[in-house]
Structure formats: C-alpha cells, structure tokens
Design a protein that fits this description.
The protein has about 425 residues and is of the alpha/beta class. It folds into two domains: about 1-275, Alpha-Beta Barrel (TIM Barrel); about 305-430, Beta-Lactamase, CATH 3.30.450. It is about 40% helix and about 25% strand. Strands 3-4-6-7-8-9-10-11 form an eight-stranded mixed β-barrel, surrounded by five helices. Strands 12, 13, 14, 15, 16 and 17 form a six-stranded antiparallel sheet that branches. Helix 9 (about 205-215) packs across helix 10 (about 215-230), helix 9 crosses helix 11 (about 245-255) and helix 11 packs across helix 12 (about 275-320). It is elongated and about 90 Å long.
Length: about 425
C-alpha cells in the first residue's frame, strides 16, 4: 500500500488535483492494520485519534472530534500542520484532506458508537474549492452508509475571506444533511455577522477564551453574554480546550452547551464509550453547585455593608427626607459612587448624589455624561426588576456605568415618596 501511494503521489504534477474517480483512488490508498484504517502520505504514516465532546446537560459524550495523528519513519510524531504544508507544496491538499477523512470515518464506524456525532475538520482550501477535483463527499457518505446528520463539518471561521464561496460551501454540506460547526470562534478577527449569515448548528469557542477567562475577571464576565448571543442567533455553543477544573467550572457558569478538552478526556486511538463518566460528570456538577454558592456568598458578603446602609437611606427617603442627606452615610462608604432616584417610568429625578471625593471618581474625559438629570434608565435591568418586585432589593450584574465610566453594580428598590412610586438606586464600584 505504501509503495502504491507514493508512486501515485510522485506521478502527480504539482497542479494535477484529484481525478474524477476520487473515492476509488482514496480507498486504494488505505489499508487495515490491527483492525485500524491507516495510510501513508509521502512516507508519513497517518492514523486517527478521537476526543470526546460532552454535553453538560446529558453528562456524557454526544460526539467525537476526529484528529490526525501522523508519524515519521523513525516513529516520531509529525504535527498535522506540517503534513498539510507538505501537501500544499505538492498541490495535493484535497487528496490528503479526503484521505484523512476516510481514515477517520472508517475507524469511527469500526467502534460503532450509536448515533453520536463525528466532528470532521475540513481544510479551508477544500471547503471552498474541493468539488472542482471531482465528486467525493456525497459518494463517500453513501459508500460507508453513514447518515449525514451524524457528520459535523468544522469550518475555520477566519480562514475563508470570500463570503460567496463560504456561503456556497456551507450550503453544499447543509444540503447533504450535515451539521455545520464554526471552529475557533474568538481567535483573531472573529465576526459575529458571519454567525448570523451562516447559521451554524454549533459555534466552537477558541481555547484562548477560556484561558483568558481563568486569568481575567473581565473576560469571565463577558463569556456568559457571548454564549447568550450565540444561543439567540440560533446556535449551540461548545467550549474547547478546557484543561483544568477551574476552567470547567467557569464554562459551566457561562451556560455553555458542550465542552471538550484534556480535563474531560484526552484524544484516544479508539472511540471511548466513557464508562463511568456519569459519576465524573455528576461529581463535577456537585462541585459546580458549591462553586456557584461560594461565589454568590462572596458576592453578597462584599455588598452586605452597602445593603444595610442602602436600605436605611431608602427608609429615610420614605419618611420624607430628601435623597442627598438621606444618602450621606451610604456615600461615605469607600466604593459607593452615586445615588439617584427614578420615577415609575425610569426617568431620573434630579441630579446624582455624589460622595465628597467626587474628583477621585469622575474621569474628566467623560464629562459629557455627568449631568444625568432627566436621563431615562427604563431599559436597565435594575429598574425593571425593582418595578417587577416592589420592596425587594435588586442587585445588578457588573457593568460599565455611563455616569461614572467605571465598572459597578447597582442596588435598586422601589419606594413610596411624596405619594408616588419611585426607584431608589446606588452604584457601587466593582473590581
């Protein structure tokens, strides 16, 4: 087999492409070794590895990403990008890509994993240009009797600049019945507009995002919003590259659907049925409950002194005191940034009540935002929740305050003042 494959490769001119009988040529280049489908490409041995993709809700693998494993004649590992660089130099990228997919699917089917997905990475050049080298993928699915809905085609979001070619390629795989996944979203110049246009079933968030989230609280706060946007666009979200329990817990806190990474399972030559993974996932869910409860406890513990002063100020206002003197003690606290009152339509009544250290809080670059008298904050969740739950103190998620141009949380509560319903609010600096 190896000699046949090399002879074929050496006979191809640099721009020959793949002949019309692509499937037959690919199959002739694959052999079976110890029950595994393997091949060679220019003296590099090609094999498959599979990494489980877990559903957090189901607590088990629902798919497996097929990964290329390549070895030099001396047995040393050859990184997949180097193998494809070699193919690019010889104009054989389409052949190599199809050869890898064939090996992966044959090995995957050999392990017979119910209806789980197999995630197949397709080279960007092949995604947009492969069909001019002859029909392959539809024939391939029919030959191996694998239902298209079990195939998740992974497309690198940043790798294809021509929008028309990308749309055409996605349409081709979708018409076959395959699922589409956008890979490495969040790396480089990712574009949400493409997510909306392509409408993939799955968006895979790049490893760099979870790594940064574990180091930077600001990034961690953004990931739940990013996942929410992906969900609202009609896609499911997968976090890849999770390597530690901390990263796993952060991913769970974000509302992610699927997870993948060394923490859950390393790639293996065989498709693992993950016996015992229910216990592992169940234990992780228990630790997440503790993690979430501890975070909530710390969150409220840090705000507890402010809540007491905030409620006392609210009671003073209800008894008839004006807002500024009622808020004086609250505004002496180190992280209190401003107090303000809204009418029942969300319009600010009067100006902000600020602490004496105002010059330390207001950045002069944001001077146009200082005067908030009459500003309408009805779209803010802290106003909506306070109106929906009269009398209960509401605490917003951290956000950038327009008034102070800094990260804060807002405490809010409905009160009765001068015979009218109002919402009393206080911004507390959040770091």
């Amino acid at each position: 087999m190896n000699a046949t494959n090399n002879t074929f490769m050496k006979s191809l001119p640099a721009d020959a492409g793949i002949p019309a009988s692509a499937l037959q040529m690919i199959e002739a280049s694959v052999c079976t070794n110890s029950g595994r489908a393997v091949s060679h490409y220019r003296d590099v041995k090609l094999n498959s590895a599979f990494q489980p993709i877990f559903s957090l809700a189901h607590r088990r693998p629902v798919g497996y990403e097929a990964l290329l494993r390549a070895y030099a004649p001396d047995g040393s590992a050859v990184p997949p990008p180097q193998v494809f660089d070699l193919a690019e130099r010889h104009g054989e990228v389409t052949f190599l890509d199809r050869l890898c997919r064939t090996i992966h699917v044959r090995n995957y089917l050999n392990d017979s994993v119910n209806d789980n997905w197999i995630f197949l990475n397709i080279n960007p050049e092949v995604v947009t240009d492969g069909r001019r080298h002859g029909s392959f993928f539809a024939d391939f699915l029919e030959k191996y009797r694998i239902a298209p809905h079990r195939i998740v085609v992974e497309i690198l979001e940043n790798s294809i600049s021509d929008e028309a070619l990308l749309a055409d390629a996605v349409g081709y795989y979708r018409d076959l019945g395959c699922l589409i996944a956008i890979d490495d979203f969040g790396a480089g110049h990712s574009n949400f507009d493409r997510i909306w246009r392509i409408a993939p079933q799955i968006v895979k968030l790049d490893r760099s995002m979870i790594a940064r989230a574990a180091q930077q609280p600001k990034v961690r706060r953004l990931i739940p919003n990013l996942v929410s946007l992906i969900h609202e666009s009609g896609s499911m979200a997968l976090m890849e590259g999770i390597e530690t329990e901390e990263e796993a817990l952060i991913a769970m806190d974000s509302g992610i659907d699927f997870v993948q990474g060394y923490y859950f399972a390393k790639p293996g030559e065989r498709v693992s049925h993950e016996i015992g993974c229910q216990d592992f996932m169940g234990g992780l869910c228990d630790r997440f409950k503790q993690f979430s409860a501890m975070e909530q406890q710390q969150y409220h513990l840090g705000l507890s002194p402010y809540l007491e002063c905030f409620l006392e100020a609210a009671r003073k206002i209800e008894r008839g005191m004006s807002m500024k003197p009622a808020s004086a003690t609250l505004l002496e606290m180190p992280d209190a940034e401003r107090c303000f009152t809204l009418d029942d339509e969300g319009r600010q009544i009067g100006d902000n009540a600020l602490p004496a250290r105002r010059s330390d809080i207001i950045d002069p670059r944001f001077a146009p935002l200082r005067d908030a008298n009459g500003a309408i904050w009805s779209r803010r969740h802290y106003f909506r929740r306070a109106m929906a739950q009269p009398g209960g103190v509401q605490i917003s998620r951290p956000y950038l305050s327009l008034a102070g141009a800094s990260m804060c949380v807002t405490l809010s509560v409905t009160i009765r003042h001068a015979g009218k319903t109002c919402v009393f609010c206080c911004d507390v600096k959040w770091s």
